[in-house]
Design a protein that fits this description.
- The protein has 137 residues and is α+β, with helices and mostly antiparallel strands.
- Helices cover 32% and strands 24% of the residues.
- Strands 1, 2, 3 and 4 form a four-stranded mixed β-sheet that branches. A two-stranded antiparallel sheet has the order 5-6.
- The chain has four helices and six strands, in the order βαββαβαββα.
- The chain has one domain: 2-Layer Sandwich (D-amino Acid Aminotransferase, Chain A, domain 1), CATH 3.30.470.30.
Length: 137
């Protein structure tokens, strides 16, 4: 393998396993990348490949990875509302639901949605940013 491009998010987790944005912003050295998807491998664009293919290749690559990159877990066939309620009870930021039968697309699109936990501190930060941008107009 010469090159790889993954979709992921840098996080820092507290001892209970819940991500903490404030620790990330503070420059905590225990940050790592949660890898969600494999987009390119050795120059080959994989975004049109089925999700199962991309996921299997990503999992295989990450088995050999050193600390600093982890495969983000997913749930198959779970009831979304129940998963979201449990995520909120755990203090998580929210959940992301993706259509597995669609090709990978960057940015916001109808093939995936992020459902945010309104009680999480990140929700208040996001609302403050939107409010500030509106005031600047």
């Amino acid at each position: 393998m010469k090159s790889v491009i993954v979709d992921g998010e840098g996080v820092v987790c507290r001892p209970d396993g819940v991500s903490d944005f404030d620790l990330l912003r503070a420059g905590c050295r225990e940050a790592f990348l949660y890898a969600f998807d494999l987009l390119e491998l050795d120059g080959a664009d994989l975004r049109r490949e089925p999700w199962e293919t991309r996921r299997a290749r990503l999992a295989s690559l990450l088995r050999k990875a050193k600390e600093g990159v982890r495969l983000c877990e997913h749930l198959d066939g779970a009831e979304g509302e129940m998963v979201f309620r449990h995520a909120c009870l755990m203090g998580l930021e929210g959940i992301v639901a993706k259509r597995r039968d669609r090709p990978y697309r960057s940015g916001r699109c109808g093939d995936w949605i992020k459902v945010k936990n309104r009680a999480h501190p990140s929700f208040a930060r996001a609302e403050l940013i939107v409010w500030a941008k509106r005031r600047q107009r």
